[in-house]
Amino acid sequence: MKKEEKDLDSFKKALARKEKLVALLAPSFIADFDYPLIIYQLRARGFDKIVELTFGAKMINREYHKILKEQKDKLFISSVCPGVVETIRNKYPQYRKNLIPVLSPMTATAKICRKLYPKHKLVFISPCQFKKIETNQSEYVDFAIDYNELRKLFEENKEEINKKIKILKKKKTNKIGFDKFYNDYTKIYPLAGGLSKTAHLKQVLNPGEEVKIDGILEVEKFLQNPDKKVRFIDVTFCKGGCLGGPCVLNKNLPDKRKRLMKYLNYSKKEKIEENKKGLIRKAEGINFSKVY
Description:
alpha/beta, three-stranded parallel sheet, four-stranded parallel sheet, 11 helices
């Protein structure tokens, strides 16, 4: 049995035992799933808490901003995409020192959740297999399932899930949205260049010092012949960013972008309780640095 199959089997056993689980949901979910329906589906399937990686992304952005402001004499490569990190480790080890020494949004969010939900197990829901590699290397995330596996979980228990959703909707509780760490503007993180667009880097980088590259072949082309003027490259392994992840069923990139922007605009109108917001003080004392 492959390791990922063992992980999926262990996760299903944890569900069957009704262990307390936190779903860590990548914002790229909107490419394939509807919001807020997916919140109801996850609760009906047995998740106790549901958080989005957007607050972790916000905290990571702050670290990037600080590093790029303080260290002006070095090329930095974004390290949020494990596909890029693994490629550099295996094919371009001379660039390991250039990977920005900060956790990914997934691990950052998991580290925050460990503090808030110490008795829960954390399940990352992923658009790609590289995130599973990152999960296996992380001490903070217990399981990782991809969007294909999530769809199967919903289909296998469709009737039961629909019944539970009806009950949840009748109760009219405040369980529609995410439980904690709500953040709206970093919902565009799955877009190619989403990090750069949300980290306020224009304040610390001059024109021409930043490049956004999506697609590993283009990333490698840059690494083989880097522009010496560039101080920061915002890179993703997949074309289209995480919206182009291999476990995303929807292959229509313009449609996925449209769905993401619609989700962003919807979220800006949501009334979010104060205790659910992604406030910086909630991450006080947590170290987000990492050596690659």
